[in-house]
Amino acid sequence: MGMNAVYEGAGDCPEVIPLFPLGGALLLPRGQMPLNVFEPRYLAMIDDALKAERVIGMIQPEPDDGRQPEIPPLLKVGCLGRITQLAETGDGRYIITLTGISRFRLLEELSVTTAYRQARVDYEPFATDFVARAGEERVDRKGLLKALRDFARVNDLKIDWKGVNEAPNEALVNALSMMCPFGPREKQALLEAATLKDRAEVLVAITEIELARGGGDPDTTLQ
């Protein structure tokens, strides 16, 4: 499809993709993720992606149970991202930005000669990912903003409230999901939420759990 590919549906995306396993990392459709790439196998993966369709699959390893296998098993849902920015550093690293396209379900990891892992994936279960702002009218924006304000106050986070207030619901929910400092299991729950409304509800629920753990008296007003 080439470097100017436009992915308008599941049928446009490659069935076999390179995988970048990274615990705690969350990429969502139309979200942007900066990555500092330094391991030789992933530098090679980026080189190969740039020669092809410029896409890689972000996916989490299964949460560590202490075994630390040489090739950690992967969770079953990840997100395809397109390399939209790339800079080379003087010490051999790549600084890239991935823009999310669609979630995928991992069908089969392949036996390959590359140093990085590759898999056959299916995008069909996530067809609505290709529709920008799908379902955002059902998001409880007020509840989401209240949870964010409480979380930011208790954790002394600096928030660009002007940007938050101006953001459409999809951009707001996905950016907050990607940015909030939650653990791998919480990040996966946000990734696998069926709809944007579901993701917003999961985000609020996780935030409230974190607030309960951290104590504090949640603010009840929006400014």
UniProtKB/TrEMBL annotation:
<dbReference type="InterPro" id="IPR003111">
    <property type="entry name" value="Lon_prtase_N"/>
</dbReference>
<dbReference type="InterPro" id="IPR015947">
    <property type="entry name" value="PUA-like_sf"/>
</dbReference>
<dbReference type="Pfam" id="PF02190">
    <property type="entry name" value="LON_substr_bdg"/>
</dbReference>
<feature type="domain" description="Lon N-terminal">
    <location>
        <begin position="17"/>
        <end position="211"/>
    </location>
</feature>
<dbReference type="InterPro" id="IPR046336">
    <property type="entry name" value="Lon_prtase_N_sf"/>
</dbReference>
<protein>
    <submittedName>
        <fullName>Peptidase S16</fullName>
    </submittedName>
</protein>
